[in-house]
């Protein structure tokens, strides 16, 4: 198909040449007859010639129109050798789609190869070699505004094909006919128009018409002008083309954040099942049926599809392996393998249990309301997915990832609506901990290097969420750790944490250049509150970790060591490796006193701004936070 589409202009022009040649030949061959008028067939031939010339004119006009349609395709041709064939094929197909599929025509880039205007931009590391300098500037401006390649998105078909990345066993599955109805909620804030259109297009094209009841679009107070009139016109067009699908628009008058926006979408939905999605996605074929089938059999299960990655630069779809959605004690999201029992089944098409969610979720609409929907007290971004994971599991439900359901999701290079996510993440994590984590709530403080008291964040009123937990008779967080997420290290033997300061030298221990195994003495950065290279954790066992602590039992921390030779520099090695090599990994420490290695009896000290292990001279150390419960 790619070859046929790319050769079509050549074939058309060849046809024109043939017709022109034929017309000239006929005109010369019959010219005497036409001039004298003596041939009885001259009038007929003259009409044939006129018809031929008219056909030529019509064909010429067609070619001109066709050439205009090639503009968007030519743009992609200049971008990448690999993507140009795919873009040409899809672009030609797009010309035959209804008007709703049409993209605004863009002028193709110049043929001449230009120098890189932004050589250090991540956008141009793998993409855009043949762009003109003007196009590079336009692409960079859009990238800085959105965090992904809008310049390219505007030139891709809205209904582009996606690679089928499902397990082969998914292709053999069949699903019930009487599945529950579906509401799809799209959350967006200043999303690029073409990205949002493509999400809508994919949902409509790849969701069975008898299942898709409505699409709810929640605008968290965008100020992009094209998300008003232009988007309104596009949605109206979709309504006319798909009268069985209800389109619901929700617009916030102020930015309320992801959690509140998702709750708004839930309130506006009316189908049996609600799928709450980001707007920078494209759904795959057969994405809905596996999810609806699971919920039909168990209304208390909350589901997630498997996300394939869409590159922020070239927008290619990269297959991701199915995995559980997990988190660390700072409540940052992460992927993690399913349980060992899952892999024993040796069937990658089966749903797997997951401790948490990544934000996108599919659930029975009424059940989601029964267990407290979403904590709308979360601000902007972060933590709400972990809160839901803990709440669902401890309050009577479960969470599964469904490998046969795939969604392609753009991973932004940066989030333009909040360049620094850290303050919002800290605040929301502390809120989750206060409501749900019981005696383990201070692990969030430990992870963020915050004091247990007076941490400086207003987490809002949590009284209603605590009442909800009591009303639902939810299990304690320890049950969650023991039964759902035993991989988390409970950190129940920590004695102290924070910056480790030598009082005599007024300097702190720092992990030093990475990669490397030599810690250093360096200026203290207490004011930064979360300067990871200097964060220290001291366990009851005597292990002293420098540069942070791992949240999971399967990860190894880096222990401060006395290498136990004539070398006077301390080491910083993975704890298991250090113990295997006989290094001194255990230290005796009391706040305001010396720090002595239990094995070598040498002390950690600072001399001439250099960190050493040497015979003890009475230097004293202080660690930023002591845990009162120990």
UniProtKB/TrEMBL annotation:
Enzyme Commission numbers on file: 2.4.1.-
First-level EC class: transferase
Organism, as annotated: Betta splendens (Siamese fighting fish)
Chain residue ranges for the region called Disordered: 75-129
Keywords annotated in UniProt: Disulfide bond, Glycoprotein, Glycosyltransferase, Golgi apparatus, Lectin, Manganese, Membrane, Metal-binding, Signal-anchor, Transferase, Transmembrane, Transmembrane helix
Protein name: Polypeptide N-acetylgalactosaminyltransferase
SMART domains named in the record: RICIN
Example of a GO cellular component annotation carried by this entry: Golgi membrane
């Amino acid at each position: 198909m790619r070859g046929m589409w790319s050769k079509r202009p050549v074939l058309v022009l060849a046809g024109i040449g043939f017709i022109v040649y034929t017309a000239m030949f006929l005109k010369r061959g019959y010219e005497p007859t036409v001039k004298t008028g003596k041939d009885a067939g001259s009038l007929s031939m003259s009409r044939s010639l006129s018809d031929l010339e008219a056909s030529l004119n019509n064909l010429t006009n067609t070619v001109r129109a066709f050439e205009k349609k090639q503009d968007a395709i030519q743009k992609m041709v200049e971008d990448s050798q690999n993507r140009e064939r795919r873009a040409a094929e899809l672009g030609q197909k797009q010309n035959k789609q209804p008007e709703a599929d049409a993209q605004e025509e863009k002028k193709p880039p110049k043929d001449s190869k230009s120098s890189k205007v932004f050589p250090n931009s991540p956008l141009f590391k793998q993409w855009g070699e043949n762009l003109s300098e003007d196009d590079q500037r336009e692409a960079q401006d859009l990238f800085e505004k959105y965090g992904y390649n809008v310049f390219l998105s505007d030139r891709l078909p809205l209904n582009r094909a996606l690679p089928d990345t499902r397990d082969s066993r998914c292709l053999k599955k069949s699903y019930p006919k009487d599945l529950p109805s579906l509401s799809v909620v799209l959350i967006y804030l200043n999303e690029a128009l073409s990205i949002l259109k493509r999400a809508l297009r994919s949902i409509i094209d790849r969701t069975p018409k008898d299942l898709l009841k409505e699409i709810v679009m929640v605008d968290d107070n965008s100020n992009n002008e094209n998300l008003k009139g232009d988007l309104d016109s596009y949605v109206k067009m979709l309504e006319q083309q798909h009268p069985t699908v209800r389109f619901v628009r929700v617009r916030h008058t102020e930015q309320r954040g992801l959690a509140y926006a998702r709750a708004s979408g839930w309130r506006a939905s009316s189908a049996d099942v609600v799928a709450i999605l980001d707007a920078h996605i494209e759904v795959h074929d057969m994405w809905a049926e596996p999810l609806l089938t699971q919920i039909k059999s168990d209304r208390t299960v909350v589901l997630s599809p498997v996300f394939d990655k869409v590159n922020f630069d070239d927008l290619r779809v990269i297959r991701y392996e199915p995995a559980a959605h997990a988190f660390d004690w700072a409540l940052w999201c992460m992927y993690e393998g399913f349980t060992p029992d899952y892999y024993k089944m040796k069937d990658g098409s089966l749903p797997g249990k997951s401790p948490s969610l990544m934000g996108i979720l599919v659930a029975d609409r009424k059940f989601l309301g029964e267990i407290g929907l979403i904590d709308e007290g979360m601000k902007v971004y972060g933590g709400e997915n972990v809160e839901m994971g803990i709440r669902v599991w401890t309050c009577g439900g479960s969470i599964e990832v469904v490998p046969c359901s795939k969604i392609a999701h753009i991973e932004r290079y940066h989030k333009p609506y909040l360049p620094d996510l850290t303050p919002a993440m800290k605040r929301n994590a502390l809120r989750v901990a206060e409501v749900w984590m019981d005696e383990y709530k201070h692990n969030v403080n430990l992870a963020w290097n915050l004091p247990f008291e007076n941490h400086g964040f207003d987490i809002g009123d949590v009284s209603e969420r605590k009442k909800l937990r009591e009303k639902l008779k939810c299990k304690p967080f320890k049950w969650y750790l023991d039964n759902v997420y035993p991989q988390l290290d409970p950190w129940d033997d920590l004695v102290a944490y924070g910056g480790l300061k030598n009082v005599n030298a007024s300097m702190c221990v720092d992990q030093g250049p990475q990669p490397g195994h030599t810690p250093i003495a360096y200026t203290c950065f207490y004011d930064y509150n979360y300067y990871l290279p200097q964060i220290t954790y001291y366990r009851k066992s005597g292990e002293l970790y420098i540069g942070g602590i791992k949240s999971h039992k399967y990860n190894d921390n880096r222990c401060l060591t006395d290498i136990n030779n004539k070398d006077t520099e301390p080491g910083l090695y993975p704890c298991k490796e250090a113990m295997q090599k006989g290094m001194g990994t255990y230290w005796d420490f009391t706040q305001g006193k010396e720090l002595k290695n239990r094995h070598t009896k040498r002390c950690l000290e600072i001399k001439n701004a250099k960190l050493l292990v040497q015979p003890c001279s009475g230097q004293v150390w202080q660690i930023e936070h002591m845990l009162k419960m120990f």
